[in-house]
Amino acid sequence: MALSPASMVARRALAAASSHEGTAKTWKIVSFVVALPGVALCMANAYLKAQNEPHEPPDFVAYTHLRIRTKRFPWGDGNHTLFHNPHTNALPDGYESSDHH
User: Fold this and answer.
1) Which regions of the chain are under pLDDT 50?
2) Farthest CA pair distance, the chain
3) In this structure, what DSSP letter does residue 75 have?
4) Which of 27, 44, 67, 93 ranks highest by number of CB atoms within 10 Å?
């Protein structure tokens, strides 16, 4: 018994729809069982590492290829980057002292 092309297309569409529902359910389960706990573990790991690490910047070394200023920044004094953090970001001549903030 030969199937007509229309019935073959209908069967394929039905099979694709049912397999799509199963795939969506599988990915939903994987997201909740694997991905969310994985993100939670990574967050806990980052938090614990941040608690155990010293919060002091590394020693300043004036490498000639770093912190090159060929043009002043258009904000502030022109020497600080837009998201400058005086505790972690060095200027070309070294870290800012804690007296500034």
Assistant:
1) 99-101
2) 90
3) S
4) 67
